[in-house]
Amino acid sequence: MNEDIPQLPSYDESSLDAAFATLAEEVRGETTSRVDVEAFRLRWLGRKQGRLKLVSDAWLKNAPAEARKPLGMRFNQLKQQIEVALEQAIATPAKPTTKAGIDITLPGSVCVPGIEHPLLKTMNEVVAVFHDLGYSTALGPQVESDFYNFEALNFPPNHPARDTQDTLVVAGQQAKPSRDRLLMRTHTSPVQIRTMIAEAPPIRIVVPGKVHRNDAADATHSPVFHQVEGLCVDTNITFSDLKGTLDHAMKALFGSDVKTRFFPSFFPFTEPSADVQISCIFCGGKGCRKCKHSGWIELLGCGMVDPAVFAAVDEQRVAMGKPTAYDPAKVTGFAFGMGVERIAMILHGVSEIGQFYSGDMRFLEQFA
Ligand code: DAH
């Protein structure tokens, strides 16, 4: 460190002036360039190793007696200078050495807003049509018990009607009574049962949701797909109400030109049951490839709630300590169920169901 200490050639006035001018210059140089104020303070004013202390020790050591006073005065001056410089450095923080600039010629980063997936969009559109009619949304679990998915809906155990809904069952359920065994729900209809057990009529619900079937995937089938279910139960609900409601819903979804027709069908939980067809939206009913030259497209199942369903609901309500509320002599209702994928495919001219699940942005962006 000692070689760092400047030599003082002699103690006469002019040598002292020159030596202290050099030191003052050193201080100025450091305060204009030094970013770290605390390091500057330590370097000059540190009690033991500070430069002021080292230099004054060195210079005072050999100073003749008459030089001690002028030396001391000059060190005091220098010390004041350093302190002023320190205060200024604290008051004006060092500027960053690099300047952050904005290059306005660079391309911007585009933040593309997301959109509803076409299936969700379609599902929401269907649900909205029924909300406008005063229906509310009800939801249920995807892992369902045999009771809600089948038994209460009038599919007795081992009944061949179950074969139409090839079921994915949860493993390890054999020890349970058949009605408690768990499965992946094959339709949204179990939410009808859940709702009626929970609430007395009047009921008007729509049930959007995911369902599962052990079907091989092809152009129009997927083992996981979506349905919207509907249920209306009240006094004096008739088949005309069912027809009017669904005719209105189809017109709201596909356009007011669309006609509907009802064909006899079978579902265990409705009696009578019907399949609903709409006039082909591609050819207006003249017949084309899309409607297999029939002029009609089959779209949904529906019917009047079977009294056996009401009986199963009331039985369960009583078992839970609730009053009966579904006497078929007093209340009637209708139900319907439709596939969301099928509606989305028809609405948007999609011919491969797999496109909806592919995550292919080129496909999805078309719905933005
Ligand atoms: N759950 C039936 C299915 O998945 C569809 C259905 C038909 C629902 C008629 C209904 C109905 O509510 O009344 O095949």
* Helix content class: 25-40%
How would you sum up the major sheet?
A: 7 strands, mixed
Secondary-structure element pattern, one letter each:
HHHHHEEHEHEEHEEEHEHH
* Number of E strands: 9
Question: From the helix content, strand content and strand pairing, which structural class follows?
Answer: alpha+beta
Distance between the termini: 73 Å
What does the model show?
Helix 1 packs parallel to helix 4, helix 2 packs antiparallel against helix 4 and helix 7 (about 190-200) packs across helix 9. The protein has about 375 residues and is of the alpha+beta class. The mean pLDDT is about 90. The protein has helices at about 15-35, 35-45, 50-60, 65-90, 120-130, 145-150, 190-200, 240-255, 305-320, 340-350, 360-365; strands at about 135, 145, 180-185, 205-210, 225-235, 260-265, 270-280, 295-305, 330-340. It is built from 11 helices and 9 strands. Helices cover about 35% and strands about 20% of the residues. It binds 3,4-dihydroxyphenylalanine (DAH). 3,4-dihydroxyphenylalanine binds near residues 187, 267 and 270.
Features:
368 residues, single chain, alpha+beta, 11 helices, binds 3,4-dihydroxyphenylalanine, 37% helix, two-stranded antiparallel sheet, seven-stranded mixed β-sheet
Write the layout of secondary structure elements.
Layout: H1 13-33, H2 37-45, H3 51-61, H4 65-91, H5 118-131, E1 136-137, E2 143-145, H6 146-149, E3 182-184, H7 190-198, E4 203-212, E5 224-234, H8 239-254, E6 260-267, E7 270-279, E8 296-305, H9 307-319, E9 332-339, H10 340-348, H11 361-364
Parallel strand pairs: 1-4
Antiparallel strand pairs: 2-3, 4-5, 5-9, 6-7, 7-8, 8-9
